[in-house]
Sequence to fold (186 residues):
Amino acid sequence: MPQDLRDVAPRLLTEPPALPDGAPAGVLVPVLEGPEPSVFFTVRADSLRNHGGEISFPGGRAHPEDADLMATALRETQEELGLAPESVEIIGCLPFVHTRVTGFVVVPYVGLLSERPEFVPNPHEIAEVLEVPLAALLAAEEEREWEFDAERYQTYQYAHGAHTVWGATARIVKDLLDRLREEGWG
Fold:
């Protein structure tokens, strides 16, 4: 497995896309660099109105003061985890995903962390921070069928310990992993 995503980022990642209708949101896919890169997820507080208790990437809805959705992702990450924007090197973004239930159009920005951060989770938003090696995500990928509004969807999920990544977050993970596989990872 290559040790540096920078080597493959120009081929893997896209420019920010034009968005369809929906509530725009930006999330950060924080990747810790090293011989065995890992990804950080958040477990959202159960008390949150949208997606409470679910595993997600840090981020959220765009605010009028945000210059763009990358600024949204970095601002939200700082609010949720105490991670300063200057400690993240954004190397690109993945195609947007829709949240089927809440109608968000989410643009995921891949950001590299050169050292393990000391997160300070906001207890009103974040119950837990998970670190999952990319290799573990590659190994855990499982295709599932899901039903919503009387329609069936093929989707993916990723189990890690007592947690399962599913929904829009799993679709982001699947896209990233597929792109990494194309480059010979896993």
